Amino acid sequence: MSQETGFEPEPELVRSFDGTFLAVRSLGESDATPVLLVNALGATFSLWRQALVDVVRERMVVTWDHRGLYDSGEPGSDRLDAGAHARDALETLDHYDIDRAVVLSWSSGTRIALELAAHHPDRVCGFVSVCGGYGQSAGKFPRGFELAALLPAAAGLVRPFAPLVQPLLRTLVQRPELAGLVRQSGLIAASADTGTLVDLVRSTAALDLGLLLAIYQAVSGDPAPGLLAEIAGPALVIAGERDPFTSRAVSEEMARTISGASLEVYEKATHYLPIEYPARLSDDLRSFLGPTLPPSG
User: Fold this and answer.
1) In the chain, what percentage of residues exceed pLDDT 70?
2) DSSP per-residue letters across 232-261
């Protein structure tokens, strides 16, 4: 097990069910119930530096780079769907000899976390979603029209042009004025760690854009609201009041439908809540993990 104390910890390679090599990472070591971080597609472990720094002092946190992204290898098959990513999550748990874990997800990672928790309940003993939903589709509006529902379809439209768009994108994100533009965009709260978000944008732009869009379309474009009723608590749904991608209505629906779930709404937070209010998020996570999930040893 990794004894790294900084982010990003060095990855270890694990072979998944279809031969895909996954870069798995761990921080912390304890007898307390571990946490499996299911990150947003295209995000890195380092984005959680401030929110998880106290958590990793108390328990082990493990995660992996999604198939085809960052240090993980090209997918060994055409499987990019949420079910494939859930199986990758199981491989991560198995690598660290973890029988059961609390699943912590952010953004598009929540669709994968739902798949894992619903179909492998024996491996999940707690569920936390941060600004995440059950997937989006322009063809299905169970909760009324939302602009974010168009994102998977938009990803599909952009994908054929990815080889043309990517060089320009990589050039633009390296410009020194990017940080100022991010601050002025209104997409993040004033309290946000702008430097971390800029690093995220630049690291995401360095990925294979076509593959990233394909993965996003396969995961987020496959909504599964029916999974919510299959999740058993304890569960915590955390939402940002100003989140343009995951509405408060979606978070309320999740908290209402998942058995044993509670809802926390951060009034000024956007979709980037983990870097806007990391101290509060850390407190909420530790509060959730403490009384409901005592040490397993």
Assistant:
1) 92
2) EEEEEEEEETT-SSS-HHHHHHHHHHSEEE
Quote the longest CA-to-CA distance of the chain.
53
Alpha helical stretches, state H, the chain: 49-52, 55-58, 82-95, 109-119, 151-158, 162-172, 178-184, 194-205, 209-220, 248-257, 273-276, 278-292
Per-domain residue ranges of the chain: 12-291
Q: How many CB atoms lie within 10 A of CB 192?
A: 21
Respond yes or no on whether the N-terminal peptide bond of residue 74 is cis (omega within 30° of 0).
no
Tokens of 20: 């895909």
**Neighbouring residues of 114: CB distance < 8 A, sequence distance ≥ 6:** 82, 134, 224, 227, 228, 231
d(CA 3, CA 232): 32
**3-class state of residue 37 by DSSP:** strand
Name the DSSP class of 75. P
Question: Which CATH number is 12-291 given?
Answer: 3.40.50.1820
Cβ contact 102:36 at 8 Å: yes
Tens-place pLDDT, residues 236-258: 999 999 999 999 999 999 999 99
pLDDT of residue 183: 83
Quickly tell me which residue has 């998880």 as its tokens.
52
**Does a cis peptide bond (omega within 30 degrees of 0) precede residue 295?**
no
**Mean per-residue pLDDT over the chain, rounded:** 91
Q: Residue 70 and residue 259: Cα distance in Å, rounded? A: 35
